[in-house]
Amino acid sequence: MNYKLSPSDLTFLYDSCKHCFVLKVKHGIPQPSIPLPGVFSIIANLQKNHYSGRRTEDFCPQLPPGVVTLGEKRVQSSPIKFDDLESTCFIAGRFDVVAELDDGSHAVMDFKTGNPSEDKVGMYGRQLHAYAFALENPAEGALKLLPISRMGLLYYTPDTCEYTGNDRQVVEGQMTWHEVKRDDTTFHRFLHDVIALLDGPLPEAEPEKCDWCSYRAATSGVSDTPTKGSRDPQSQAIVPNCPQCGDLMKLRTGKFGDFWGCVNYPNCKGTRQA
Q1: How distant, in Å, are the alpha carbons of 11, 29, 127 from that of 196?
Q2: Residue 193: alpha-carbon gap to chain centroid
Q3: What digits encode the pLDDT tens for the residues 235-260?
Q4: Which of 31, 60, 174, 190 has its CA 20 to 30 A from that of 247?
Q5: Are residues 73 and 181 in the same domain?
Q6: What's the gap between Cα 202 and its chain centre?
Q7: Does 234 lie in the same domain as 208?
Q8: In this structure, what CATH number is given to the domain that contains residue 261?
Q9: What pTM did the predictor assign?
């Protein structure tokens, strides 16, 4: 099997819940989508537009001289194979920005808003390694850039707010560069562990750590409306279709005992014997 791995899933989902990670990557069952607050997307887009075409030394003295040349580009790696594992994987995602440095190499950068910490920088470092690997080892026809000599996060931490008049407000904050050191050996070892996990049995759910696992555990077996082909939770009988409207039925109890009644009652009064 050739697993598709997104840099964001390797960063967030893998660490938060192995059960949900395997469900998504191997079985195609993702967690319900919860979009980030729109303001973060707006900030990120403004940053990408602002820094596009700018010299790196003008806004990040820690980087070698260069120019921000690419933003919001998709990447895809060639298949990654390990000798002791049957399955392979490939990386597919989209980076924030890349700068072409004057020495001919490239720097991969991600914009972040919030308060940086060592844990966060380490977590996002896995994401940057995935982009770097995909750029240096692209699939046929995919974007290729090499070498990737620098990786890091540009953190924006808002700290002041000012009303400037004419219905305008300015929120300012510090921009800090957080370098991510390249460590391909550790990253490849991590990918090996990921494929081994995916090739193995489905990990146990962790409701004490994962909100989605907790939700599934709390709602397991709870249903007021049966689904076609399911078993009624009371009788374990297969749920039939209504003889009048064709919709599903629900087990009910009347003065003559149990019977199947249409879920659309009282608009539909179809019944069947239980």
Answers
A1: 17, 19, 19
A2: 19
A3: 556 678 788 877 778 888 887 788 88
A4: 31
A5: yes
A6: 19
A7: no
A8: 3.30.65
A9: 0.78
